[in-house]
């Protein structure tokens, strides 16, 4: 009779363990599903933001390229004028006749 009680207890423990494991798996599946939904929302927003950043970056690059093309000639001429206008003169600290 004593062995019957132990085996009945063991059977109930196994059933309780299996039931608890099933509840854990159900909770895990529910949380995983909720996580996937939240992850999809976040990743969706992230891809929207990335596309907006890409669009804005391309607009800035296009604007800068147009500005460079518009002012390139003037910038080159200004640099050439600065380089070509050489006026040789002595340094202000130069003293005639003093050596080393």
UniProtKB/TrEMBL annotation:
Give a GO cellular-component term: vacuolar proton-transporting V-type ATPase, V1 domain
> A single Pfam family, by name?
V-ATPase_G
Print the keywords alphabetically. Coiled coil, Hydrogen ion transport, Ion transport, Transport
Q: Is Cell inner membrane given among the entry's keywords?
A: no
One of the GO BP terms on file:
synaptic vesicle lumen acidification
Summary of the function given for this chain in its UniProt record:
Subunit of the V1 complex of vacuolar(H+)-ATPase (V-ATPase), a multisubunit enzyme composed of a peripheral complex (V1) that hydrolyzes ATP and a membrane integral complex (V0) that translocates protons. V-ATPase is responsible for acidifying and maintaining the pH of intracellular compartments and in some cell types, is targeted to the plasma membrane, where it is responsible for acidifying the extracellular environment.
Please state which protein family the record places this protein in.
Belongs to the V-ATPase G subunit family.
Please report the name of this protein according to its UniProt entry.
V-type proton ATPase subunit G
């Amino acid at each position: 009779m004593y062995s019957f009680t132990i085996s009945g207890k063991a059977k109930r423990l196994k059933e309780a363990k299996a039931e608890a494991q099933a509840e854990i798996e159900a909770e895990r599946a529910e949380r995983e599903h909720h996580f996937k939904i939240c992850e999809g929302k976040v990743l969706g927003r992230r891809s929207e933001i990335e596309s907006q950043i890409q669009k804005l970056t391309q607009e800035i690059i296009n604007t800068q390229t147009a500005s460079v093309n518009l002012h390139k000639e003037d910038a080159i001429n200004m640099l050439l004028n600065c380089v070509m206008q050489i006026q040789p003169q002595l340094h202000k600290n130069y003293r005639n006749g003093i050596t080393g």
